[in-house]
Each structure stands twice: as structure tokens, then as C-alpha cells.
């Protein structure tokens, strides 16, 4: 026997009086539409840092970059192009503060046998690893749950906590390897 159950005419609320998740998500989406930096401000605030203009600018530059990985020097060059009034030292401090707070992740990529460079990315994705082409200097993200589970297990066995840092595995992409064999 089917029963016709009347639906409540008001918006359902949780036990604590907060709107349901769908209302929260709609309010958050509306905030983002009104303020494109809303998610960046939230990301910084959740880590206990005030969302200063320098910190937000670092995050904007990384968010808007097609690759999403930049060195401190590349970030500073982008800052100069934007004619930002704050000095480069303040901007570099913002980069390092964001990294220490876990808002940015650092990836160490080898330049050659003697040198490496630190690249930064916004830490808003699940743990992932990086591959680095030494020819074209392209950084490739790989997301593999099995690899991450094995690495997490090894950290647990060793009694370590993962740092906000990754070492990119170096190699040559197919295009660079082919170009090298033709010109080499």
C-alpha cells in the first residue's frame, strides 16, 4: 500500500540549525561568483594565516598559470609584470610562509647533475608525485593511489610524517629523447 507523505514546506535544517549541505554549497558558490579569490582566502585562513595581498597574489599567479608549478624566481618575475607595490622580499616571504603553512607544496626538480630547483604549487589536491623532463623542463603530475598507499605505509613503518615536499623523478619525455637522437 503506497502512502502519500507530505513534504515539509520549509528548508530542512540539521540538528544544530545550520542549512543542509546543498545550501552551504550554494552559498559558497555564490561567494565565489562574487569574489574570485574567495577559495584562495579560505585556503589561507584554514591554515591560520591572514590572507594578505602578497599571499593572495602568490596564489593568484599560481592559480592562473597554465602549468601551476613555478619557482620563486618565476613567481617574482610575474609579480614585477603585475606592477605590485610591495617589494620582492615581502613577496618571497609570502611564498615561504605559504609553504610552511602547507598552503603551497614544494617540488624539487633536478636541473642537471649538480643543481636542482624548487617549484611551488597550490596544495589543494590529494597527494601526488611528479615526473620531470630534463630536456623541455616539463613537470608532469602523476596520481596513483597504489603508489601513495605504499609510500604512506613506508612512512608509517618508519614512524615519519610526510613533509610538504616532493622530489620529482627525472627523465626525458619521448619528444625530447627523439629530438636528441636526431640531433645528437
Automatic annotation (TrEMBL):
Entries under InterPro entries matching the protein: FUR (IPR002481), WH-like_DNA-bd_sf (IPR036388), WH_DNA-bd_sf (IPR036390)
Cofactor section: Zn(2+); Mn(2+); Fe(2+)
Polar residues bias (residue ranges): 1-11
Superkingdom of this protein's organism: Bacteria
Alphabetic keyword roster: Iron, Metal-binding, Zinc
Molecular function terms, GO-annotated: DNA-binding transcription factor activity; transcription cis-regulatory region binding; zinc ion binding
Residues binding Fe cation: 148
Name of this protein: Ferric uptake regulation protein
Amino acid at each position: 500500500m503506497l502512502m502519500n507523505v507530505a513534504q515539509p514546506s520549509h528548508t530542512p535544517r540539521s540538528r544544530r540549525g545550520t542549512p543542509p549541505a546543498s545550501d552551504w554549497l550554494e552559498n559558497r558558490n555564490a561567494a565565489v561568483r562574487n569574489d574570485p579569490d574567495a577559495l584562495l582566502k579560505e585556503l589561507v585562513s584554514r591554515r591560520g594565516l591572514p590572507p594578505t595581498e602578497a599571499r593572495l597574489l602568490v596564489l593568484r599567479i599560481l592559480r592562473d598559470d597554465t602549468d601551476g608549478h613555478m619557482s620563486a624566481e618565476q613567481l617574482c618575475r610575474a609579480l614585477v609584470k603585475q606592477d605590485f607595490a610591495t617589494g620582492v622580499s615581502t613577496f618571497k616571504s609570502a611564498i615561504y610562509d605559504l609553504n610552511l603553512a602547507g598552503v603551497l607544496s614544494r617540488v624539487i626538480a633536478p636541473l642537471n647533475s649538480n643543481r636542482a630547483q624548487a617549484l611551488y604549487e597550490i596544495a589543494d589536491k590529494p597527494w601526488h608525485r611528479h615526473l620531470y623532463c630534463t630536456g623541455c623542463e616539463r613537470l608532469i603530475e602523476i596520481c596513483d593511489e597504489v603508489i601513495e598507499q605504499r609510500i604512506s605505509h613506508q612512512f608509517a613503518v618508519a614512524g615519519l610524517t610526510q613533509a610538504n615536499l616532493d622530489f620529482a623523478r627525472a627523465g626525458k619525455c619521448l619528444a625530447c629523447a627523439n629530438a636528441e637522437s636526431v640531433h645528437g
